[in-house]
Amino acid sequence: MLARLRSAWLVAIVASGAALALDACGASTPSSPGPCGAPKGQVVVAYPAPGATAIPDNVAGVIFASTDGLSGGYQAWLLPYGSSEFLEFAPVATVTPPLPAPNMIPTFPNPVYQESASAGVVLPADTEVGVYLNDSNSYCSPRLLSTFTTQ
């Protein structure tokens, strides 16, 4: 009887731990985590400029501008209209101006520019694309920052 009780207790502990592990990686949680954001300060998309049109479908990357810089775990995720799958770009790396056109210069002073390279991703032609900020080192939902349209 004591062995069965210990066994049942062990099963309950293991099941509880498994549920927590699944919840931590988002596999079973009904509520969504908060949106990914800059660790502190502000972050915007500098290229392609928000709302830009005729952006090449083989865009080389997305350039973020932030007040404090983003850690290497941040990356652009793109979502073409009508698609259910994100296209993941590379982790951010620092770039210096001049930026490709069309770009948007942020309103805050001394922006830190970082590019998330496409690694050869080709987007669908003549399609609106959402630009999301993702933190691959955190359990958060990618955050929509802007959109642009491919040529």
Low-confidence stretches: 1-31
Q: Could you say which structural class the secondary elements and strand pairing correspond to?
A: alpha+beta
Reported by name, the CATH topology of the largest domain is Immunoglobulin-like
- Could you report the average pLDDT, rounded to the nearest whole number? 82
Domain count: 2
Silhouette: globular
Listing every helix as H and every strand as E from the N terminus to the C terminus, the arrangement reads: HEEEEEEEE
Q: Could you characterize what this model shows?
A:
It contains 1 helix and 8 strands. With 151 residues, the protein is an alpha+beta fold. The longest helix is centred in the first third of the chain and has 23 residues. The N terminus is likely disordered.
Write the layout of secondary structure elements.
Layout: H1 2-24, E1 43-47, E2 61-66, E3 74-80, E4 87-91, E5 93-94, E6 112-117, E7 128-135, E8 143-149
Antiparallel strand pairs: 1-2, 2-6, 3-4, 3-7, 5-6, 7-8
What attributes characterize this protein structure?
2 domains; four-stranded antiparallel beta sheet; globular; single chain; 151 residues; 30% strand; Immunoglobulin-like; disordered N terminus; 8 strands; alpha+beta
Q: Would you kindly provide a brief summary of this structure?
A:
This protein is α+β, with helices and mostly antiparallel strands. The chain has one helix and eight strands, in the order αββββββββ.
